[in-house]
Amino acid sequence: VRLVESGGGLVQAGGSLRLSCATSGIDFDINTMGWYRQAPGKQRDFIAEISSSGSANYADSVEGRFTISRDNAWNTVYLQMNSLEPEDTSTYYCHLEGWIPGTYSLKSYWGQGTQVTVSS
Fold first, then answer.
1. Is 44 within 8 Å of 34 (Cβ atoms)?
2. Which of 86, 85, 87, 66 is nearest to 77 (CA)?
3. Are 114 and 17 in contact (CB under 8 A)?
4. Exposed/middle/buried for 49, CB within 10 Å: 0-12, 13-18, 19+?
5. Confidence of residue 97 (pLDDT cuts 50, 70, 90)
6. For labelling, which of 27, 57, 102, 111 has a CA lying 20 to 30 Å from the CA of 64?
7. CA 9, CA 16: separation in Å to the nearest integer?
8. CB 82 within 8 A of CB 65
9. Contact (Cβ atoms closer than 8 angstroms) between residue 80 and residue 70
10. Residue 72 has what pLDDT?
């Protein structure tokens, strides 16, 4: 399984970025895919996730500013980030939670991360 993030970069406060997470090597059912972020010296925090039914959940800190979406085949998951703030500066990680075939257990996979820097 491979998750590859792209779309990070430097943007001014109030600007927008769209992150992409391209998937490959998936031969199992996916429960959710989502995004987390981690700043230096801090824990990795949940940002958003989208389920197999298409329902989305967001952290309070990004609700109304960020939108997660995916294509029907789970080939790519996106995170549209609007009204960016300096506090959004972080490394953003793509996350996939998939069903282990033949079980009721879930397994997590992570991308390598993409840096987002928001200048004031």
1. no
2. 66
3. no
4. buried
5. very high
6. 111
7. 10
8. yes
9. no
10. 84
